[in-house]
Amino acid sequence: MAHIRTIAQMGHPILRQISASIADLENPAMVSLGADLLETARHANGVGLAAPQVFESLRMIVIASRPSVRYPHAPELPPVLMINPELLWVSDEQDAGWEGCLSIPGLRGLVTRHIRTGVSYITVDGKRRESEYHGFPARVFQHEFDHLQGKLFIDRLESLNDLVTEQEYQRRLLEKP
Ligand code: ZN
Predict the structure, then answer these.
(1) What's the CATH code of the domain at 134?
(2) How far apart are CA 160 and CA 150, in angstroms?
(3) Which of 85, 96, 170, 176 is most buried by its number of CB atoms within 10 A?
(4) pLDDT, tens only, 138-152
């Protein structure tokens, strides 16, 4: 039975720690953390979530790209739970896109990210997988991976002029379909 966890808010020191690798995948606490991450991301309309955001300094993330009120243009992908994810390679090409974070409610920032990424991770069944992401899911992966390094999207802003309120972001979105 999955539980909806409380989300750590910017300023809490756990969001600035480097998360620890997960050694014992069969530990029931790890299994329930995975289920809770998926459920908490779904409940909060998140497109991704990292374990430190639910006060667990461990290397586990969820990528759950789907259209929602917060991300109307997100592509629909089945949610993926990743244990000990690694960034294998990144494309030279980058682009700027608006990001939000469940730990930084009410704000959006324009962040430059690599357009394509190669990633590897361990599944909940203990299998190692490799995947390639392009566009929005690649952005989500880089954002969530940053959480495991104690980094937030605000650290990657080129200028504070690229930080706007949610209301202003929604206004711009309506202007530019
Ligand atoms: Zn975040």
Answers:
(1) 3.90.45.10
(2) 20
(3) 85
(4) 999 999 999 999 999
